[in-house]
Specification:
single chain, alpha/beta, Rossmann fold, 8-stranded mixed beta sheet, 15% strand
Length: 727
């Protein structure tokens, strides 16, 4: 791919996303957003000032779905590709279950970027989950973050409550409380929020506490007008009609004619996911109750892809069951078609053109529609539209003058609007023509991309260097720094980094002179505040990485950005309250001060007595708790998550930032340093070490220096030839 020009990353994490034959409508997570981001990626990549576009999504290796979703990198064009990142295991799961796994997604995205060796110029998040990931990565790399919500949690909560669900049910099913919290932060921290309509800004973003903090711009989605061309184009240019299109058209006709007794009639077309908010039942009711409308036209509803209704999610199952019951109630056999599947990339454009050929109408009766991408697709093919007045369709019809708005809750108004267009041929022709011309003027992808890139230019112009106004004091470029280096020095503070002022000054000078070649960090049992204090007292600047509280916390850069992936990793089977309860009866244990107690560390004072230590182990094991116990300096007892330690934190950093363990120099002097000095790291034990480390004598990758404090670190650097290549 070309390297000169903008590098953009789009994050759309949930759903089934592939470049060819996307399975739109397969489930609630594979709808319009999938189509939007695929076409956006291709269209942006076609712009001359863009060098590369990555559409980043979740890798799914599940036998229940196509193997296409397990391919790590899939080209979309010469400058665009799908990048798939694994998180949350192999199985395909709905978006609400992905929240606990997004920090893992971030960590693996970092590793991908480190290996790929280029940082994107913009991170563009789609939907709340993609917004969270893009926001975090933008913060890590000091790059701008742009957000497109597609739908918002507070608006969804209002609608679900209005439909009769309790707030507890909504939270349990949709994790809506967590989603809303994320959206509040995303609105505040984004450089730009791109919306499809002004209605979206007012009615969705306006519900948020941070609404006024957002910077909004309206850019309607685009469509591929080479795919969604007018129905009459085949008469003018027969070469457009290739064999694949002819086969798709015949497949659709065969499927529709299975349902209709009089297939020569115009037909009313609806195309949407089987969701209660799409109001499919309202459309069928409007059609079924109006005898005149049934006499004028057939009805076709393509409500996603289905095999076995009984095996579908509850919302979808209820919608489809209601469709069948209404079909029976109004005796619509012979006039209502409800096909079980369609191929979106090939068959849907032909479906719109078939509807236009029949002099039919496309209808979107949703209770609310944030935008309505199918409306502009139908309009581009020459089908007049009828759409809900609630949401974005008002903008579409306002721009194109190609149909009528209706109250979706009034079945009589829906039927009346349909009849008005179907029986007035002059009106049908005007709406058809206006839709074709209006889409080309307002909704082509070329127009969308020019506006989007103009927004990016505006954001860049407001940025001093790579830092935006909103990022001042918040973001640092530590991610770019750690992605650029492949060597890391990590050392304990007390009696290792400090203790001999002259050698400390010499070491800091060496690190500063070689900043281009390696990063450095400290690993300490102290909490973050005490770590900052001891570094300041000794005149030591904040390092690139701080591992503190005995390896249970990791922070980066001058802004001390917390590593959320590490926090999530440690939380597994960690039960600190239960640990305190189990050990409360041991009178030889004394809880340390409150500032020493951390989220992932329970700390005591204890005498240096092997029997006492054995009793602590016995109590915890009897309670079947998972833990890690660290005793150091003859008095400090720290109980940590079993996944935690300085050494495990170092290995996590190695994995996350793709720094090979042999290229990490780990230096320490006491027992809580032991596991970071073992294994494949280049371990250095300084001369003034405690007896706890004598057991490491003779290990191949652990060097015992005859120099103390920071002089021992300098000696270790020389021993391993750390600045001149691995020994």
């Amino acid at each position: 791919m070309a390297e000169s020009g903008l590098y953009l990353q789009l994050y759309s994490i949930h759903g089934l996303i592939r470049g060819e034959r996307p399975e739109l409508g397969r489930d609630a997570d594979t709808g319009g957003q999938v189509k939007y981001v695929l076409e956006l990626a291709r269209a942006l990549a076609a712009q001359p000032e863009v060098a590369r576009v990555d559409l980043v999504t979740r890798l799914i290796d599940d036998r229940s779905v196509s193997a296409d979703y397990a391919v790590p990198v899939e080209p979309l064009s010469d400058k665009a590709r799908i990048v798939r990142i694994r998180c949350g295991g192999r199985r395909y799961i709905r978006k609400e279950l992905l929240w606990p796994h997004l920090d893992e997604f971030i960590d693996k995205s970092l590793k991908f970027l480190k290996i790929d060796r280029r940082v994107p110029d913009f991170f563009h998040g789609h939907y709340a989950d993609g917004g969270y990931v893009a926001k975090e990565l933008a913060s890590i790399f000091g790059r701008p973050f742009v957000f497109t919500g597609h739908s918002m949690g507070r608006h969804k909560l209002e609608k679900l409550l209005a439909e009769g669900m309790t707030e507890e049910e909504v939270i349990r099913r949709y994790r809506i409380d967590h989603r809303i919290q994320v959206e509040e932060r995303v609105i505040k921290e984004s450089e730009k929020v791109i919306t499809s309509t002004n209605h979206e800004i007012r009615e969705q973003y306006g519900l948020y506490d941070n609404h006024q903090e957002g910077s909004y711009t309206v850019i309607p989605p685009g469509i591929d007008i080479d795919t969604f061309y007018p129905y009459y184009a085949l008469q003018l240019d027969p070469q457009l009609d290739d064999e694949i299109s002819r086969q798709a058209r015949m497949t659709l006709l065969h499927e529709l004619h299975r349902f209709w007794v009089n297939p020569q009639k115009p037909f009313i077309l609806a195309l949407c996911r089987p969701d209660q908010r799409k109001n499919i039942a309202g459309l069928i009711t409007a059609y079924g109750e109006d005898k005149e409308l049934k006499a004028i036209a057939n009805l076709a509803i393509f409500a996603g892809i289905r095999k076995n209704i009984a095996g579908m999610e509850e919302n979808e199952r209820n919608v489809l069951t209601e469709m069948l019951l209404l079909m029976d109630r109004y005796d619509l056999y012979g006039s209502l078609a409800i096909p079980k599947k369609h191929d979106f990339s090939i068959e849907v454009p032909e479906l719109y053109r078939l509807c236009a050929d029949s002099q039919g109408v496309f209808v979107n009766p949703a209770l609310v529609e944030p935008f309505g991408l199918t409306l502009i697709e139908a309009a581009a093919c020459g089908v007049p539209i009828i759409a809900t007045r609630e949401g974005g369709p008002a903008d579409i019809i306002g721009n194109c003058d190609n149909g009528l708005l209706i109250d979706p809750t009034d079945s009589g108004k829906i039927a009346g609007a349909l009849k008005k267009i179907l029986v007035d041929k002059e009106l049908w022709e005007r709406y058809s023509r206006n839709g074709i011309n209006g889409v080309r003027e307002h909704y082509a992808w070329e127009t969308h991309c020019r506006k989007t890139l103009a927004v990016f230019d505006e954001v860049r112009a407001a940025m001093p260097g790579q830092m935006s106004g909103k990022s001042q004091g918040r973001k640092t470029a530590f991610g770019e720094r750690l992605s650029a280096i492949d060597r890391l020095l990590v050392c304990d503070i007390d009696d290792t980094l400090v203790g001999d002022e002259a050698s400390t000054v010499e070491l800091l000078a060496l690190l500063a002179a070689n900043r281009h070649a390696l990063a450095w960090g400290v690993a300490t049992g102290r909490c973050l505040q005490m770590t900052k204090e001891v570094l300041a007292e000794n005149g030591i600047p904040l390092p690139d990485i701080v591992i503190c509280s005995v390896g249970t916390e990791i922070f980066y850069g001058s802004g001390l950005h917390p590593d959320k992936g590490w926090q999530h990793h440690l939380s597994y089977l960690w039960k600190p309250r239960r640990i305190r309860e189990v050990l409360a009866e041991l009178d030889f244990l004394e809880l340390q001060e409150s500032e020493s107690q951390r989220q992932f560390k329970v700390s005591y004072y204890m005498e240096d007595d092997p029997d006492m230590l054995a009793e602590v182990h016995r109590r915890l094991q009897a309670a079947k708790l998972r833990y890690r116990l660290v005793f150091s300096r003859g008095q400090f007892l720290d109980i940590l998550p079993y996944r935690a330690s300085k050494g495990k934190a170092v290995r996590y950093l190695s994995y996350k930032w793709a720094i090979p363990l042999p290229q990490i120099l780990a230096c320490g002097n006491c027992g809580n340093d032991e596991d970071m000095l073992r294994g494949d790291t280049a371990g250095v034990v300084v001369a003034n070490h405690s007896p706890e480390l004598d057991a490491l004598q003779g290990l191949r990758r652990t060097y015992f220096s005859d120099q103390g404090h920071a002089a021992g670190i300098l000696d270790g650097i020389s021993h391993y030839r750390f600045l001149g290549g691995e020994k």
